[in-house]
Amino acid sequence: MATINVIPADAIATQTPVTAANFKGKVDPDWCPGCGDFGVLAAVQKALVELQIPNYRVATVSGIGCSSNFPGFIETYGMHTLHGRSLPVASGLKLANHDMTVLVTGGDGDGFGIGCGHFVHAMRRNINLTYIVMDNQIYGLTTGQTSPTSRIGMKTKSNPYGNMDSPLNPITLALSAGATFVARGFSGEQKHLTELLKAAISHKGFSFLDIFSPCVTYNKDNTFQWFRPRVKKLEEDAAYDPTNWPEAVKRATVWGDEIPIGKFFERTDLPCLEETEPVLDLGPLIDRPLHIAPDVAEAFVRELM
Amino acid sequence: MTKTFALGIGGAAGQGVATPGDIFALIFSRRGLHLNAYNAYQSIIRGGHTFLTIRTGVDEVRSMGDGIDLLIPLNQDTMDRHLRLLTDGGACIYNADSIKPGTPAPGVQLCALPVSTLADITRNKVAQNTLAMGAALSMMGVGFQSLESVLTAQFGRKGEAVVKENVDIARAGYDYATANFKPFAHALPMTENKYAVISGNTALAMGGAAAGVKFYCAYPMSPSTGVLHWMATHGRQAGILVRQVEDEIGVINMAIGAAHGGVRSMCATSGGGFALMTEGLGLSAMAEIPVVAINCMRAGPSTGVPTKTEQGDLWQALGAAFGDFPRVIAAPLDIGDCFTLMPEVFNLTDKFQCPAIVLCDLLLSEGRLSVDPKILNFNPPIDRGQLITSNGTAHEPYLRYKITESGVSPRAIPGIEGFTHVVSSDEHDENGVLISDEYTNVTKRRAMMEKRQRKVAGIEASVPKPTLEGPPDADVTLIGWGSTDGTIREAREMLAEQGISTNQLQIRYLVPLHGDAIVDILGKSKHTIIVENNFTGQFARYLRSETSFVANGHIRKYDGEPFMPHHIVEAVREQLAGRTTLSVPTHEVMV
Questions:
Q1: Disulfide check for B95: which of A245, B122, B128, B529 has CB 3.0–4.6 Å away?
Q2: What is the interface pTM, i.e. ipTM, of the complex?
Q3: Which CATH architecture has domain B4-180?
Q4: pTM of the model
Q5: What is the CATH number of domain B468-583?
Q6: Which residue in B has a C-alpha nearest to residue A120's C-alpha?
Q7: Do A118 and B396 make contact, defined as CB atoms within 8 angstroms?
């Protein structure tokens, strides 16, 4: 059960410098002991501290699922939305106040199952969000059913005779949908993950980070022990060029004894949505006057006469 | 009702019905006349039949009326279907080269235009339309100058030659009619008034803009798409961010995200899209984020009849999203009200941090009405409720869902130092901490449920009670909601002329309903009849469920077309004569 950490009023002070304490959530996570999500939470908090972004300038928006309880465990402006709907909600929030750093957190079922349509379109828009998926290849909160990234043959409560549907490849999907930053991390590689998160948050445009975050309770196939010998960092291959899209697609299809992690792809030549949208040229919508200028309003009425 | 003049233009979709319609509307409104226009059409990309009715007069024109005075059929089909709408004194202007006239009622003038001798039809494909406009205005006693100036403005961009060609054709039609056709008995009047001609969808969009909407998103769906179109073309000037989104689930959630960010946020759709939005409305209620969703109703269920009207989504709106939560549901009474309602509704959602649903319908959304431009007030009162937008002085640790007597908790917008918090679709405590999985949460759950529901009393107190219009001792009380207002009013005038006195209770807010006030009013009525554009009497059932009130009779229509005034008149008469308690008028013309 979650316990409540009391935040004294005098703790509310200007955050210079930003420290880890600023991001400590009101409650401790209620994830299972050993859950991969602990590592992701720690890496996100560390990345925000290293980037020196004050907690009140960050919004963390999630869907529904174990990993989607994330906003409750970090001290930022948090939002726990509907199953699969974190990306549209986060997009609306970002467009209302684009000076905020908006992180979107969730799981593979939330993002690639029920929310897959929104995932594809958010990438097309190149809206400046950082989408962090804690991918455990299983539905955990509902106690162990097949997910869109479960392997063929995997036995779960919903597929006791083995999964028959091909797993979705989130990396190739993101590459084909036009994401401008595509990476894969592993909860068991903290330092590497923190660096990826920093790069993703700093990227201007849609950044997608698929993170292996093993479920220690319901997924006995894709465990820490299973991933650890297989993951191989792209950054360790000096010849790998993450601006080369065809090569990124090629690497993204590698799966088996070796599974690449790291930054598959990044392009910085495309403007993000907030830059292409002229209405936002004058600053965030939230700072704009409510009433329409009288001459503009008059012109709207004159059109009808 | 003083004298009105109605004209009908019909043809195949793509034959150019809209342009003469727009031109007539502009000429009428510039003459200081009121007008009401309704377009009956079908969901076909090209082809199908379109019939536009424009009714004009010195006084407010509240409905499309019952008949027409002038018919302009652009094809044989329209001639065959609509000639019978003309009565003594009416006229039909048609292309003698391609259309065979039918047999009109006595006293109807058939005006055959020799189109190919008056214009070079190989050069100008819509010559028959332009000739007919010229001829019609001559017969209405309208000077040619008014048409010339509209055509000059319309074709100005295409150059002087095109302007001259069209003006010449129009003048040929005008002169031919002056020489050969009998003018209407009364010339079209003129006043010094100035009116704006506006569609319901444009009014909803402009009303939202006036309310301070800064974020609008939508997925195209008839008949709501006009709201998106106005927003898309005017958003940049108005400082409104407009997004077309992948589906209506994305739409409502994006609108909620923007609203949580602190801006007024709105979306519009029709029944099918609204169905997809309902889970999101629940999020708005639970997380206490104000958002406005407009449902421009069309005939359902399912894809239904996309281009036809109905008031069939009331129960969908009442039950939208699972669970109990406060909501506001309002239905504009006419096209002008589509504008004026929006700032009101936004003030309510902001003050009470709950979702609001606006139930419009195709009749208003796609209809056009002349309104006094003064009602298009872009400076309406705005009340954003308890909103924290800056970090002022030192304060207690912030509780987003603080338990208060009113049920409303001050809402801090994200980005302010010292107010970080979590908002949630899971049940939560005052601090936004999820309690959904705690086994000791019954006390907190109950407290939060009661906090949210306490807002209902505040909403009720903020919305005026409905009032009865007309003589209190009338023979009949007609009860309607939303868009039927104008047609019922006109029917009442006709009934008064026939010696039947009526009054009217028109419901604008479905939630809060003010059931006690309604029962007080109706308890004194002699004979109550509920008029609604659906099959099952959705409002009648709602009123009964809330108040136990059962009306004496019902008038319902569910054929896709709106009521015409005579439908209500005849139904009231047959019900007063004791012949039935449920009248379902027949729409006489296939459109």
A1: B128
A2: 0.95
A3: 3-Layer(aba) Sandwich (3.40)
A4: 0.96
A5: 3.40.50.920
A6: B246
A7: no
